[in-house]
Amino acid sequence: MPLRVPEIDRRTYQEILDEVVARIRVHNPEWTNHNESDPGITILQLFAFMTENLLYRSRLIPERNRLKFLSLLGVPMRPAAAAQGMVAFENLRGPLRSVTLDRDLEVLAGKIPFRTANSLAALPVEGRLYVKAPLPPDRERQVREQYDRLFESFKTPGNTLVLYETRQVAFTRTLDLNADTVDGTLWLALLTRDVRLIDATRAAIAGQPLTVGVIPEGDAAGRVLPPGGPRVRSEGATLSFQTPDVGPLPQDPAQRVARYRPLPARSSADVLAEPGLVELRLPGDLPLWDDLEPGELGVGDFPPAVEGEDGDRVVTWIKIRPVRPSSGANAPQATARLAWLGVNAATVRQRATVTREIVARGTGEPDQVYRLAATPVLAETLTLTVDGTPWTQVDDLLAAGPESRIGEAERAPVGYGGAGRIVVRAYTLDRESGTITFGDGLHGARPPAGGLIEAGYDHGGGRTGLVAPGAITRGPALPAGVRVVNPVGTWGGDDPASVREGERAIPGFLRHRDRAVTARDFADIAGETPGVDMGRVEVLPLFLPELPDVATPGVVTVMVIPRYDQAHPDTPEPDGFFLDLVCDHLEPRRTLTTEVRVRGPEYVPVSVSVGFDVMPGRDVAGVRDAVTDRIRHFLSALEGGPAGAGWPLSTNVERLELWAQANRVDGVGKVNDVLLFGPDGPVRDRVELSGLCLPRLAAVAAGPGDPPPAGGEPPAAGPTPLPVPVEPGEC
């Protein structure tokens, strides 16, 4: 049953004063002067003031009781999640040398602290990215004949000239290495500060490690939690990094081709599946081709042609391609979509460090409780000592050994849950409130009377850590000449659950006990995933997306929709990071015999056109906008449908239902007709939806009289062989 807050007297100061003044006539009719100048009235004002303060304190009692109920029930409150991100360092001032930046370096976005999770050598070069971008069709038609004649000698029976223009990558949108390039390659140019320092720069970075940060656009395909064990990430593509293998080019034109050697690379993650770093070891020599003919620049597999001073500042090129991990550097092209890639990168997490905090002095009593000064605490970073002796953090003090076995614990390795290991000096931590609880002597030791309790830890978390690109710009300990910036916004930060949210979670938690068994359990637990803003969860038991018409035992499909999606505000879609967070939250809570599919919805495009008559005296434009808004809201994945909770699954879009919605709009006198278009275009009475399908309103039009036309959109395609640079047009 829900926890109900008892209503304690809510009278205000003025209400209390008015009541006691009104009682004067009953209890003391001789008292006739009720003005504020009367000393008796002053005493009553003091009484009203003190009573209001007392009532305020009394009203806090239910709140304390509610918190105590949550504590006694053991319902876990969702803690704050710390935001993560990636920063890039720039070492383009000061001495021409590599600068070592240690791990745990503090950088700031305003007053919000972040700390780096890796050390790196910031090389004194600028990293610029280029692609060989396909020409627009009209531009290609203009120059095709000219370049076919110009590069006639490069043609062979097995290739075709593909014209391109060199384009610098700014990452204002996602880069698709298949669609946005003619060769499926990203070209990284390492540039010196000054063309006069190119030889000195080459010597300064030769043999040095180069840290490359990669942020992919998460794969939005569904995730699978297989029965019997944790999710195994599918073997997707990875990135290969190559540098020019320069030698004298043969005189035979057919043999004058670019050759590359792979760079030794060590990766912190599958960087095409999740953000991560790749550490490259640059070779000891970094030459470039010096015997290229002018017409060979940028042709074939040579780096793209870069004109002007930027081309003269290139120290070396790094060729980046996605390949299958089992195939090696020269394998066929795989796919990759990148949100950002850059050099001198480091991952960061929102946190501040407390090096040494004196928590308290022990009392020797059982069940001692103390609170840390800064919250929320990142539990894995907490180190706690009593009189200089480290104590161990555990999940449950009932599993800790009695105080009488401290001697044995000192002789055995300290640990938790291992065979033969005794944990006596133990404590528990509530990371949200920063509360540390010690044992009672029978279950865990008690800090002795006068024992000095000290702690060191990191703290941070919440939505304040979600900062925009370019917000992280400074660091107190950055070396002179080194600058920092975050090229993309941070992600993953989330506020802790409020007491009200904790109360609402009590019935669900008591039902499922943090284990996903029933469909409702899956919906509740997926909806509580930290670090995501969940808009809607639907659970389909016995449903396999590949076989929608067959009941499949042992399979549960969880459809999730984020509350906000910048790319698709009207039809939100979960990206790969969103799906991964939901999977990671469900994995330890589902039964091992269940196969769980975590998917986004499958949107089916529909278009609607409404013709109507306007009531006399009403503004046509206002009524038209109200009709289109009503249709858009009715078909919404989050707020649409008859119940206003999102368009229901397996519910067809009916033309007559849309007619009824338009007819309810204030100002519409009569609906003349409604036209409904499905994905293939023709007018129909209904668009059938099944499985995970939801409607996506591709176009909506409304107007007086007959229904106006509603639009649609067509696709495109293209080739690849021998890339040939095209000089940019001049005005």
- The helix count comes to 11
Average pLDDT score: 83
Unreliable runs: 409-420, 712-721
Please indicate the count of domains.
5
Question: How would you summarize this macromolecular structure in one to three sentences?
Answer:
The protein is α+β, with helices and mostly antiparallel strands.
Would you give an account of this structure?
There is one protein chain. It contains eleven helices and 35 strands. With about 725 residues, it is of the alpha+beta class. The strands form eight sheets. The protein has a seven-stranded mixed sheet with strand order 13-12-16-9-6-7-35. Strands 19-25-21-22-23-24-20 form a seven-stranded mixed sheet, with no helix packed on it. Strands 3-4-18-1-26 form a five-stranded antiparallel sheet, with no helix packed on it. About 20% of the residues lie in helices and about 30% in strands. The protein has five domains: about 15-75; about 125-220 and about 235-345, no CATH class; about 355-460, no CATH class; about 510-600, GMP Synthetase, Chain A, domain 3; about 600-705, no CATH class. Mean pLDDT is about 85; it is low at about 410-420 and about 710-720.
